[in-house]
């Protein structure tokens, strides 16, 4: 444990608004500071308690961090800068830091002060205050515990990327966004919430809760949040929840939908009939449709197809949940734990120099995991655990990659060409259907080996060849349509001309 110094930080809660809400302990601490001519650092003096405090305690010496709100262009660094300045001063002398409400409720700067103070060995003490939550909930007639309300700091919300918001905002439960202190921040909050809520969603801006006649609840559509100057340091935004089926960008909605589809007796008859076995074909189909979208470089289609593939994950998880096999939480746990475990260079102390070392570490960790699970690795074939449902060309190249590591590999490209010629000769010599099938299989296998020599994915190469053939043949169909002829009317020579024309256009 870090040794504490004689310096320290007392963090005082000023309450939500009126000076009548200031606790006796908070007033005593502030009075002692004034009598000792000690400066009290206020996060902001834009708070209705400040002016009455000056009258009540005339000797009170105040400095604030309001300048940082105007100077800061990086929301994520604003409170960090405040915390750093507080702790820097506290290493020289005892510091009083005053914040609105309760220091531990909706006060990001306080959390950062506590973190830095612990790291620097600075003692801290909290002087509680009435939080903003009570008067805000009073104005909204809301019990935050009953409805499970979320409370987020506006500055923190503004720093999140769109892909991070899903872990911080659940649109199907009530949301309170605190410290929406100016119009610029209101814009960032609006843009963040637009990830989940409709632009026309009616929200409530609660101003000056607990400050008598200044209290107000302003209703407006979300898109108007920054089209006025209503936001200030005493503003809390209340966002009512959307219905489950309306939260289309929330991960939880997909889980809810799949559960509803399989629910007895009012779900979907088709979905209720599905099993792990019947869903297998759809997993395969959706996987290939994702690959197709990737090859077409169609990002809109890719987003749609990834959604279809994700649906298969959730459907299998729901089938398993209903059969008491596992839940979607187990799926998350397995993949999250695996990624953390197999990336010690990211989440641990291991070091790597390149991607090749990453692969080596990955394979070594996999071996350790299997040994820990009781698998006799010494008795295991290097060709085990290649799913046979995988496309045959992919299996061929995976086998070839594995055996090459043991030294079973052609030494040169001419050797591969020679083997291809040998397989061609064996096809010509084959006389039965069984022999022809076997020799053609051998030719395909060695062709996959040739692709490996060129570092080409054989499956991808064949897919591209299929796509190229499709486009060229469809081009010939279009030409035939323009010529008002049936495809079956073309002679072999005419087909060759058509093919040559199609090659030049595609």
UniProtKB/TrEMBL annotation:
Residues forming the NTP pyrophosphohydrolase MazG-like domain are: 274-347
Which terms in the Gene Ontology molecular function aspect does this entry carry? methyltransferase activity; nucleoside triphosphate diphosphatase activity
Q: Could you tell me which NCBIfam families the record lists for this protein?
A: mazG, PRK09562.1
Domain named Tetrapyrrole methylase: residues: 9-226
Q: Which CDD domains match?
A: NTP-PPase_MazG_Cterm, NTP-PPase_MazG_Nterm, YabN_N_like
Q: InterPro entries given for it?
A: 4pyrrol_Mease, 4pyrrol_Methylase_sf, 4pyrrole_Mease_sub1, MazG-like_dom, NTP-PPase_MazG-like_C, NTP-PPase_MazG-like_N, NTP_PyrPHydrolase_MazG, PRib-ATP_PPHydrolase-like
* Pfam families membership: MazG, PRA-PH, TP_methylase
PANTHER family assigned to the protein according to its UniProt record, in alphabetical order: NUCLEOSIDE TRIPHOSPHATE PYROPHOSPHOHYDROLASE
Superkingdom classification of source: Bacteria
Q: Name one GO biological process term.
A: dATP catabolic process
The protein here is known as MazG family protein
